[in-house]
Amino acid sequence: MLSCLNLSKKYGKILFNELNINLEKGEILAIIGPSGCGKTTLLRCICGLEELDSGKILLNGDDITKIPAEERGIGLLFQKPVLYPHLTVSGNLSLASFNNHDKALVEVGLPNFEDRDVDTLSGGEGQRVALARALLANPNVLLLDEPFSALDLDMSIKLINDVRALLKDRSCPAILVTHNIEEAKLFSDRMIDLSKI
Amino acid sequence: MNNTQKFFSILAVFIYSAITIIPIVFAIDRLILVSGFNPILWIQSLDQNYVSQNSITFTFVQAFFSTILTVLIGFPVAWVLGRYSWPFKAFLRSILTLPFVIPAIIAAMGFLTITGPYGLDVRTDESTWWWTLIFSHAWFNIALIIRFCEPVLSTLNPNFEEQLLLLPNGITFFSRLKNLWIPILTPSIAAASCMTFVFSFTSFALVKWITVRDKTLESTMAEVSSSAGIQGYMESSSDIVLGASFIQFLVLLASLWLMSFLQQRRQTKWQQASELFVQNKNAKGWFVLVPAIFFVQLPIISVILGSFRVRDVSENSISFKWSTEGWYEAFQGSYSFPPLSEALFNSLIYSFGTLIIALPLGYILASTIHQLEENNSNLSRILEIYTMLPFALSAAMIGLGVMLGIIKLNPSAAYDFRFLPVLAHVIITVPFVVRIILPALRSFDLSYDENAKVLGMSNFSRFFKIKLPLMKGSILVATVFTLAMSLGEFGASFIVARNSEWITLPLLIDSLRGKPMKDPLTVPSSNAVATVLMLITMILFLIVEKFRNTKDRGMF
Questions:
Q1: Which of A61, A77, B298, B365 has its CA 20 to 30 A from that of A165?
Q2: Which of A48, A49, A96 lies closest to B169 in CB terms?
Q3: For the residues A72-91, what does the mean pLDDT come to?
Q4: Residue B183: which of A86, A118, A119 has the nearest Cβ?
Q5: What is the dihedral sign for C-alpha B336, B342, B343, B346?
Q6: ipTM above 0.85, yes or no
Q7: What structural domains and CATH numbers belong to chain A?
Q8: Which residue intervals define the domain ABC transporter in the entry (chain A) (predicted)?
Q9: CB under 8 Å to A70, separation ≥6 — which residues?
């Protein structure tokens, strides 16, 4: 499904060198490691927001290394939900698709939220809307950049379980990066410690 | 609010009313006494009098085209400056936004030098000077577009664009334009356009010097002001002043309302990030920045070079030589004009006099508004609008207000009172001081003050040891802004002091440039004075830049 071959990147210091990752359809991988070890940069390279120093990324066998981010079909959930404040919840979902907003919101546990202003949402609700939007776009792979880290413990456990179930339902492969090993265990099928590679 | 604060607040409102609002009310009362109260007749008189014919149409049309051209030139500059990283970015931003603090009369001198016989010599037909005026307005206001749009672009959390790139409806440039850039930039562009329109609408020095025949409402008003408000003598002047100021008041009031509405929309919940996040380089951007720097610096350099370039008239030909004769003439003075040093002294006295009154007055008014916001929001809003009223008056109307108001109180004071321009400058600068201090007070962390209270510090001690040091940046910006505005003020000073013995630097420039052009030192000497004034305002501007907060999203 997704193959990352010999990925290397440095920002002053080497963040990752000759890194290989394979992700199968429906598999959820967690990449753990302390702050500053290059987890976020790795995700940004995979989705195309940053360029690799060297290495190849294959998606379903196609080389997407040089394809711009907007054409890769890879979704990303940021640490803080990025919701556009000039649009309602429904307006934000429209950026991914004009249809099935109600169904997507029910799936993430936010029925009847279509007309809500995004600045009235709590952190957890905002992250659920961002997730609904990411899933509406039908990504080939979903990347999650510590999206649960800003939430309180109860809320994050509930969201982790919900998101995992949703991804498994759709057989959508995903990569979560986090510094929280408990969160990684709960969410993923397997883990890679980036600081030990 | 304790009793001491109440006392100072009431005193500040009283002083503000006495020196700013009451003279204007007296002036309007005087003009109405001469003309009668009939706004329709006042407006009709504008087209019926030869001196003011077509001024309404001309004012609107030139302001409209000036605004369009300003956006067309300014927006690409704001875009490349805000979106990409540049070496010496702060310096680039400073030189590109410099025109806004350069007094309008200097801009006029710069463009006259470029287009006149000392430069390209293209001031031959009406289309030339029409476009010169429009370009000079664009030059003057380009900073507004940059100031309003560039911080929005450079401090926008980059995740907004990145997230959109990864969504189906953000794939193309046009979809990102529709879903991100237009919503986020429209209020800023509209607010900057609105201010540009206002400044072009009330433009005086540029219109006075660049146009040949046409006049704006402001320049018409200034021209007839000396005969306005006198019963039985050229009463049409009073009609013209009332008609012009009535239209200006309505337009400026509508613009202020629109500005306030747009400013609120600009304060949206778009997350900002540090400017350091914007790391992208774009070499193609130099194709925008280099011509923009050239455009911005050309009139400034022309003024400096023009002060040393003297026409050498011989029997058969006209040539130019490099000489300091213009400077000598400016410093020497003549029977008709005071020396540069005297005008400089007057200007400095007026600007410091303005500062001494306007800064504490503006600070106390802002502080009163801020404290009322917590207890009585309606009264706070009324006071805020009250302090903004001078924004809805043009400089010429303020000058006329001071003149006629003083005449009503004590006619001889109009000719004996040396500090008359200070009054006009205070009226003009107090609203700016309030606008600079008020946001700083609003963002002041109350816990600092509360902590000082529980440590047993008195009101006086808390103000000087806690509040003042923490707000020194805003206070310094307000100080420098007040000094710079007073030094470069032309419209009101033109009415109040042009026939006095206490003329200012802008008035001296105006007088020197008004000498017959056959005198080879007319242009160099006026440019020499303009250079001195320009250097002072540039130094003040650099001080402001050092203390300006990049996250203020284009406020002063």
A1: A61
A2: A96
A3: 89
A4: A86
A5: negative
A6: no
A7: 2-196 (3.40.50.300)
A8: 2-197
A9: A48, B165, B166, B170, B171, B172
